[in-house]
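RETRY 2/3 - previous attempt timed out on the joint model. Re-submitting the same 688-residue input unchanged.
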Amino acid sequence: MENYTLLILLLAATIRVATPLTLAALGGLFSERSGVIALGLEGMMLGAAFAAAAVSAVTGSAWLGLAAGIGAALLLALLLAFTCVSRNGNQVVAAMAVNILVAGLGPTLGLAWFDLGGQTPQLEARGQRFTEIVWPGAAAARAHPVPGLIYAELISGHSLLVYLAAALVPFSAWVLYRTRFGLRLRAVGENPQAVDTAGISVARLRYQGVLISGALCGVAGTYLSTAASSGFVRDMTAGKGYLALAALIFGKWRPYPTLGACLLFAFTDALASRLQGVPLPLVGVIPVQFILALPYVLTVLLLAGFVGKSTPPLAIGVPYTKEN
Amino acid sequence: MSPPATPARFGRAAGIILQPALNLFAALLLSGLLIRLIGENPLRAFQLMAAGAFGSSDAWGYTLYYATNFIFTGLAVAVAYQAGLFNIGAEGQAYIGGLGVGLVGLAGGHWPFWLVLPAAVGAAALGGAAWALIPAWLQARRGSHIVITTIMFNFIASALMTWLLVNVLIKPGQQSPETREFAESTWMPTAQGLLAKLGSTASAGPLNLAFPLALGACALVWLVVWHTRWGYALRVAGTNPAAALYAGISPSRTVVAAMLCSGALAGGLGLNELLGVQHRISLDFPAGAGFVGIAVALMGRNHPVGIAIAAVLFGALVQGGSELSFDMPHVNRDLVVVIQGLVILFCGALQSGLWKRRRQRRAA
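RETRY 2/3 succeeded.
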């Protein structure tokens, strides 16, 4: 019984950790499928986290915060798209530039505006955060833990953005595989020449791919600063953008496997905080750091082809120049 | 082919000096706008930064101490870049290279310094190279994208070092995750000590023997990459892998060799940071220098001379930036990170300018 409760709580924590990862990884999916490397997820997420928390703190509205988060991430995405698509700049360098720029910009503006050492004020008032939504009957369901706790902890009790992330997975799969736009987007990441020959603008599609990744990172960042915590702190993404990219690679550039990878990585994270100093049968205490490093090790192994094979879009990272 | 980015009459010098200067100017201009937006005076801010970085012998000492780290990581990024590889893993390689340095520092308490120094240099190179080996091998043999694997290895290095410092190397009976202090006989001689011997009482900050070592590394890279057959092979493989293959140069061997050199150079950071200043292994001592190395290499055009100059510039930015925060409470060191990001953007990604030239469009 106690183990059952622990497991449910662990899974509930997994869902919360997986939400920003999934949103960012889905964003990365659109960018990478169009042929633009999604290394900038980290920066766009961090920028959104700052903008959302700052606007929510000033206006008192989490929804305006969300709009600001998405807006900030879109601006950064626009900068990336301009550099990588219009100017044919090096995509890796451009993304690193954005990541580093944002890492400095958030605390700089934060210090200037709020005078709290680079943080934003704590979001305490009602409506400043995306708080947990308790579904009808969740409290009553707790009385019968065996099916009830699943309803109360896993289905009910998350913020709106969690449900949004969950809904975006099938939606992304539908867009990518069942719409004309999705077909073209996937084609432009594999063979831009062919798309160009068909009279479709390669640049336009890549702009769209990168901007979608910006919008989704905007939601992910907003979740971090206004739902998972109550305010922006320095470097609050802490590598989650890179982890999302790893999940995307681990998910072989497909929506559902990517969701699976995000859940797996989130589970290791949730597990690590549970297992801190707890001895396990047979193996003893597993150092937390080893569990935390697991997603990265797994991704390297996958990239090396030791655990299955993950093939990136063919034209990824290559700027497209029209020949005539 | 596209025409040269600068008018021909300025020639080569313009491409080497004028363009980075213009890019730097653009980055500083935007930073100035940001400072203005914050409500401070940009000119005064830059004046304060310059004074903080170059205003006294102490300031120079700090500037060159930061520059030492950036020379090592900048060279690391550049050597890989010359071979056509983008090494984002200098941070992790510096971390593990530093572990090697630190182990020598811990073990070498009774060794004479002439033995400590080569052992530490060797350990730094070995540690850094070891951490670059797996991504290099995976790139060469299995085609795994080196950008992704080196990022992953940064995180793995961070986890490994945290574990080592918390559980294995921690000084017994202490809370903070760091080792005991190295014996004083293993410390790098400081510029301060040299000045004292010469009869001067001037302060020279934390500047130490690692700085001339870094300059030596610059010379070595220049010599090896530009003046040996092996370096030539490296640059050919980086510029045109197909041509390299036809010329009998093995691309996979070149990839591994270049990355090993790159990692070894990144490891040099530990000499400055651990043997020179901290005298113990502490958590996250590279402190982002691996990423500054990207900016330094791009701005220095991946050439040792350029890197040395760019490293001093970034050292000045970091030192000046921390001095600035004393005088302008609304500005902190993060501003330097913004400038760093802008420099990478302008020098690395938008190096051909913000606007398409007509000429280029017609030629394309």
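The mean pLDDT of chain A is 90. Closing ticket.
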